[in-house]
Design goal:
This protein is an all-alpha fold. The chain has 11 helices and no strands. It has helices spanning 4-24, 29-51, 57-63, 65-86, 88-103, 110-125, 128-138, 144-164, 167-189, 195-216, 230-245.
Length: 246
């Protein structure tokens, strides 16, 4: 059944978040800070690993060796301009604030709920497993990748929720919408997205994840939400470059 993988992913996030909220308050503040710092470091590692997609042979053949990094660079720049004009980060915060008023009793700080929602949404939605797994699900090729992602997201949401609270559970909505749309695209597309385009999305997503990690470590509050359009710009630039060079 198309969409089953995303449903499992949503359930894992909700279960992990619930356990994190129920158990997390028993940990001292220094423990929760340590957990958040550890997750921030892991996100940096995952982002760096995603950047290795720049060396993908199909991607290099499509845009040349010199073009791999340039496509990512211009995707981030153009995406950042588009995102800032549409104020995506601000709108994500508005959604987080509305969810906080709708689903909590007001005893949870608004800023903490929003930070949990935005951070978890970005971490869970950015990455090759979210894209490739959802495409595979939509194409009827199995949900193994999303099952693996669900396991990882479940443990991550437990750790996140111990610090950020119920905002992390609300990120299940973002995951459902994002992965659901990709699953639908895969279902109607009828063929797998070219490897070069996937590599460009993965590499660009790696840069965004680095921004998320920096944000989680409180080094700088990078507005990663405003950079999200880069994930759409990257495959477009890759396709244009490939057609010009071809």
């Amino acid at each position: 059944m198309p969409g089953l993988g995303t449903l499992i992913n949503i359930a894992a996030i909700l279960i992990g978040s619930t356990i994190g909220v129920l158990v997390g308050h028993r940990f001292p503040e220094r423990t929760r800070v340590s957990v958040t710092d550890a997750l921030g470091l892991v996100v940096l590692v995952v982002g760096a690993m995603n950047l290795f997609a720049i060396a993908d042979s199909d991607y290099r053949d499509a845009v040349t060796d010199a073009g791999t990094l340039l496509v990512v660079l211009f995707s981030i720049l153009i995406g950042g301009i588009i995102g800032s004009l549409f104020r995506i980060e601000y709108r994500l915060e508005l959604i987080g604030g509305w969810l906080q008023r709708r689903f909590t009793k007001g005893d949870e700080p608004r800023s903490r709920f929003i930070e949990g929602f935005v951070t978890a949404s970005l971490v869970f939605c950015i990455g090759p497993l979210a894209i490739l797994g959802s495409l595979s699900d939509g194409l009827g090729q199995g949900i193994e990748q999303l099952t693996l992602k669900s396991l990882l997201d479940g443990f991550a949401s437990l750790a996140f929720a111990s610090t950020f609270g119920w905002g992390v559970a609300a990120s299940a909505i973002s995951v459902g919408v994002f992965q659901g749309l990709i699953t639908i695209i895969g279902f109607f597309a009828g063929s797998v997205m070219p490897a070069a385009l996937i590599a460009s999305i993965t590499a660009t997503g790696g840069v965004l994840l680095l921004g998320v990690g920096i944000r989680m470590l409180n080094i700088r509050a990078i507005a990663v939400g405003d950079l999200l359009p880069a994930l759409v710009v990257a495959p477009i630039l890759t396709a244009i470059t490939a057609s010009v060079l071809g």
